[in-house]
Fold this sequence. Notes:
Number of domains: 1
Shape: globular
Amino acid sequence: MSxxxxxxxxxxxxxxxxxxxxxxxxxxxxxxxxxGRLGSSILVDFILGPHxxxxxxxxxxxxxxxxxxxxxxxxxDLLKKAIHVGFHQxxxxxxxxxxxxxxxxxxxxxxxxxxxxxxxxxxxTPSIIVVTFFQILLTGGPLQEEFGWRGYALPRLQARFNAVxxxxxxxxxxxxxxxxxxxxxxxSGYQYLWGHMLSSILISxxxxxxxxxxxxxxxVALISHNMFNVSNILFPALETQMGSLFxxxxxxxxxxxxxxxxxxxxxxxxxx
Length: 272
């Protein structure tokens, strides 16, 4: 991999600054507004409303810097990654199924071991799975984040570090970006930070693996991120004690297997 030059290093730093700055500009006031410390106003109503644009920070940062450095053509190239499907179709299998298997398997183990699990409402109305899929894809994080985390930051990190180290760095930044969100509605959000960071790092390795093996497809990153979110809704293993344990076991085991088989340098099998 080529070394990251000074302009790219600067742009990577700027990416995180803008992504964090844009998001925290809305999430931090929301934390205070939720506690009634900002009074009542149209601005507070907007911050607390469904149209709060906080989550779009990574998206805004990626496209702003791309336009500034590469113009309209650069923006078009970034957008094209969202329709890139020029890779072996076998990669759709882990993209769609890996996270449901991890979350579903963890919940199944909790059930087998005798723990009471939440009601799976979608079993009686399967069509709600499709609605949930697109709702989360468009409004629950993937669209707002993946053009930035994977589309912009990951290639620049991998220009300097191997795939695993790049994933760890990105996972840490990805998790910390959520920090104000942990405190919306609770006074003790920090309690979730370390577990969320570990999970983000592990998920980041998996998405990097998919990204590198599909030629840098933002579409794959979008769908895999989305399947993680959807899987946690459909199979709420983290709402159970044993399910949480097996979720972590299965997630760690998956990452260990990926790194062992595909190797940490690129997470791509070398052609013999």
